[in-house]
């Protein structure tokens, strides 16, 4: 890994540096939920200006990972795998639909969904969605119209395509950009903690371990910002 490229993340003084963080998550995953809170902890304590997004992502690998590590389910059960795949996909579309009503309501929806699942052992269902929507600042009728729309499905497909271009293969994965380097970002595919994010943003040396951190060329950075900030 080029040392000069790594140092690009710390060239500017703290008041000049702006970071963009994209955390790719399984909306139903407990470890992803913990990593979201670690990212928020970093944002609260950081001296840098930080923009962040939670981007839902799933594929067969993340479904198997969820079944094996999170729920300890039999990943050889194809019917169950298909059911969970569909459930995660539906939750991802729900989050995209909630974001159409604003970043704040979208994040509020995601956190409340995760809170109910991981702290109250609720199952993902329409009943749970209705309950959440009745208690947050989201128009329920508009939410379900958007969730069923081709626009939301297309936007999520674009998220998946961009994740692939960024070498994101599982969740959680964090991609970090800063305003001193427009072509490259850091992909953190493990150990996503507030301390680790802080070390990267402060320009500390990256270990030569591609499974943990690696520099990736990102041609679609602006496309990602456009997709995850989809508005009407």
Question: What is the topological layout?
Answer:
Layout: H1 3-7, E1 18-25, H2 30-45, E2 49-56, H3 60-70, H4 78-99, H5 103-119, H6 126-133, H7 140-147, H8 150-165, E3 173-178, E4 181-188, H9 194-201, E5 213-217, H10 221-228
Parallel strand pairs: 1-2
Antiparallel strand pairs: 1-3, 3-4, 4-5
What does this structure look like?
This protein has 232 residues and is of the alpha+beta class. It is 51% helix and 15% strand. It has 10 helices and 5 strands, in the order αβαβααααααββαβα. It has helices at residues 3-7, 30-45, 60-70, 78-99, 103-119, 126-133, 140-147, 150-165, 194-201, 221-228, and strands at 18-25, 49-56, 173-178, 181-188, 213-217. A 5-stranded mixed beta sheet has the order 2-1-3-4-5, with helices on both faces. A hairpin with a 2-residue loop joins strand 3 (173-178) and strand 4 (181-188). Helix 4 (78-99) crosses helix 8. The chain is globular, with a radius of gyration of 18 Å. The termini are far apart.
Please name the defining characteristics of this protein.
232 residues; alpha+beta; five-stranded mixed sheet; 10 helices; 5 strands; globular; disordered N terminus
**Portion of residues within helices:** 40-55%
Amount of beta strand: 15-25%
- Sheet with most strands: 5 strands, mixed
Average pLDDT, to the nearest integer?
83
Computed structural class: alpha+beta
Strand arrangement, largest sheet? 2-1-3-4-5
Query: What is the molecular shape?
Result: globular
Quickly count the helices: 10
């Amino acid at each position: 890994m080029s040392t000069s490229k790594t140092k690009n993340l710390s060239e500017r003084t703290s008041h000049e540096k702006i970071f963009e963080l994209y955390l790719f998550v399984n909306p139903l995953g407990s470890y992803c939920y913990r990593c979201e809170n670690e990212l928020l902890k970093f944002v609260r304590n950081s001296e840098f200006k930080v923009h962040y997004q939670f981007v839902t992502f799933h594929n067969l690998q993340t479904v198997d990972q969820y079944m094996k590590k999170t729920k300890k389910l039999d990943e050889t059960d194809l019917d169950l795998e298909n059911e969970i795949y569909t459930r995660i996909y539906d939750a991802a579309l729900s989050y995209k639909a909630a974001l159409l009503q604003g970043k704040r309501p979208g994040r509020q929806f995601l956190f409340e969904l995760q809170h109910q699942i991981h702290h109250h052992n609720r199952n993902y269902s329409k009943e749970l969605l209705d309950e959440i929507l009745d208690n947050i600042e989201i128009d329920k009728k508009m939410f379900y119209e958007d969730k069923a729309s081709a626009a939301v499905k297309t936007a999520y497909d674009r998220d998946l395509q961009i994740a692939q271009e960024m070498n994101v293969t599982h969740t959680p994965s964090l991609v970090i950009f800063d305003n001193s380097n427009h072509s490259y970002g850091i992909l953190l595919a493990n150990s996503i903690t507030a301390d680790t994010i802080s070390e990267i943003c402060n320009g500390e040396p990256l270990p030569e371990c591609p499974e943990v951190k690696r520099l990736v060329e990102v041609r679609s950075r602006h496309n990602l910002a456009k997709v995850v900030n989809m508005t009407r």
